[in-house]
């Protein structure tokens, strides 16, 4: 039996009738853009994060762009972020004309190393843009203290972290703005693209709302150059049905992660993700398989694939070494922890509907795969 990296159809089956009804209602209402369902979802999502405002948009990428634009970040400005993330994190910074400044990660958490941020702050720095990667929450008390000390704004990339908390407060409620993605494989997935921005600042919320609709303040009155970045009513309807299930979906992810941790703890040649982090939503369960030039990791991945276990590498090439960012001049070796992780990481299948049998199959196959490849010296 093959184990896929995720199984979106199984989740649909579980929520089937309610989802079908919600989608059909919108379809037959004739209101596909804006309207009651979109407003309802924005309110419900903001409430779940604990912020005063939720502004929906077309994607997590657009959420980041709209947030940076609303904070008036643009040409001549720098935004400090991590290179160990999905490309869109940095792409959004460049899209508003600013320059991404990459700081290395803490290899134990995979997250921005706050000890190294201060050295990267300069006169052009405007924003800290941390990423709660794989659902792992960054220490937001430290992050906010650092930002306040230097007069910087904070935009949280929560794309992989809907349902994550730091110190009991949801991610996306700590920074000036939180940016969420509803790409189907995220913790809260739409049936297509979608995103939402959370904030407590009414001025920022209003600006983001306008920017998402061509910078339009009232009908055909444009205060700024904006975007066409709306959340479809059909997607809002799907998300409204799924949102109440988010806490239990995250609990399932946490149970799978705990079980993986217990089952894999004695395997040698394998470094497990930190298990003790409270508020982790486990969008991914990412192990490290050390070995020079990714060779061992790739061998283990191939051996797993031969046994029907489908893993994914998030992310094989750090953003600072992507061709698109050659002009920034980061060379190989400039962010050593990030570069090492890119060679070592492997995401095991983890999604709420994963069965115990599938999980055990992954563990057994991992034992066989690790036995087949030579351990590093
Ligand atoms: C998915 C993702 C994004 C982009 O979200 P989209 O909805 O796909 O545009 C941004 N940052 C991170 C860390 C992501 O995982």
Give the tags.
11 helices; Aspartate Aminotransferase, domain 2; Aspartate Aminotransferase, domain 1; binds pyridoxal-5'-phosphate; two-stranded antiparallel sheet; 377 residues
Could you please describe the fold and organization of this structure?
The two termini are 34 Å apart. The protein has eleven helices and 15 strands. The protein is 38% helix and 15% strand. Strand 4 (105-106) and strand 5 (111-112) form a beta hairpin. The mean pLDDT is 96. It has two domains: 9-244, 3-Layer(aba) Sandwich (Aspartate Aminotransferase, domain 2); 245-372, Aspartate Aminotransferase, domain 1 (Alpha-Beta Complex), CATH 3.90.1150. Strands 1-11-10-7-6-2-3 form a seven-stranded mixed beta sheet, with helices on both faces. A two-stranded antiparallel sheet has the order 4-5. With 377 residues, it is α/β, with parallel strands linked by helices. It is globular and about 65 Å long. It binds pyridoxal-5'-phosphate (PLP). The site of pyridoxal-5'-phosphate has 15 residues, from helix 3 and helix 4.
Rg: 21 Å
**Which percent band covers the strand fraction?**
5-15%
Could you give the order of strands across the largest sheet? 1-11-10-7-6-2-3
Largest sheet: 7 strands, mixed
Helix content: 25-40%
Number of E-state strands? 15
What is the level 1 CATH name of the largest domain? Alpha Beta
- Terminus-to-terminus distance: 34 Å
CATH-derived architecture of the largest domain: 3-Layer(aba) Sandwich
């Amino acid at each position: 039996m093959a184990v896929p990296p995720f199984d979106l159809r199984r989740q649909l089956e579980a929520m089937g009738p309610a989802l079908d009804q919600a989608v059909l209602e919108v379809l037959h209402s004739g209101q596909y853009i804006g309207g009651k369902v979109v407003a309802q979802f924005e309110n419900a999502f903001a409430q779940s994060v604990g912020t005063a405002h939720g502004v929906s948009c077309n994607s997590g990428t657009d959420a980041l762009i709209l947030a940076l634009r609303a904070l008036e970040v643009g040409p001549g400005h720098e935004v400090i972020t991590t290179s160990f993330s999905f490309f869109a994190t940095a792409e959004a910074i460049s899209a508003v004309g600013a320059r991404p400044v990459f700081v290395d990660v803490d290899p134990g958490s995979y997250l921005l190393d706050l000890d190294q941020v201060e050295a990267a702050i300069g006169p052009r720095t405007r924003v800290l843009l941390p990423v709660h990667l794989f659902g792992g929450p960054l220490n937001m008390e430290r992050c906010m203290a650092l930002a306040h000390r230097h007069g910087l704004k904070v935009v949280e990339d929560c794309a992989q972290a809907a349902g994550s908390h730091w110190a009991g407060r949801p991610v996306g409620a700590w920074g000036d703005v939180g940016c969420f993605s509803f790409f189907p494989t995220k913790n809260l997935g739409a049936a297509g693209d979608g995103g939402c921005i959370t904030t407590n600042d009414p001025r920022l919320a209003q600006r983001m709302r306008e920017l998402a609709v061509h910078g339009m303040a009232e009908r055909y009155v444009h205060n700024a150059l904006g975007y066409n970045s709306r959340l479809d009513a059909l997607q809002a309807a799907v998300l409204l049905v799924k949102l109440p299930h988010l806490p239990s979906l995250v609990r399932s992810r946490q149970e799978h992660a705990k079980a993986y941790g217990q089952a894999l703890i004695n395997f040698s040649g394998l470094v497990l993700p930190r298990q003790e982090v409270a508020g982790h939503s486990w969008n991914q369960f990412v192990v490290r398989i050390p070995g020079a030039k990714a060779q061992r990791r790739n061998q283990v991945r191939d051996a797993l694939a031969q046994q029907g276990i489908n893993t994914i590498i998030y992310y094989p090439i750090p953003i600072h070494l992507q061709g698109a960012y050659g002009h920034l001049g980061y060379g190989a070796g400039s962010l050593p922890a990030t570069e090492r992780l890119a060679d070592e990481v492997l995401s095991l299948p983890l999604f709420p509907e994963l069965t115990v049998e599938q999980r055990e199959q992954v563990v057994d196959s991992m034992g066989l795969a690790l036995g087949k490849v030579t351990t590093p010296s």
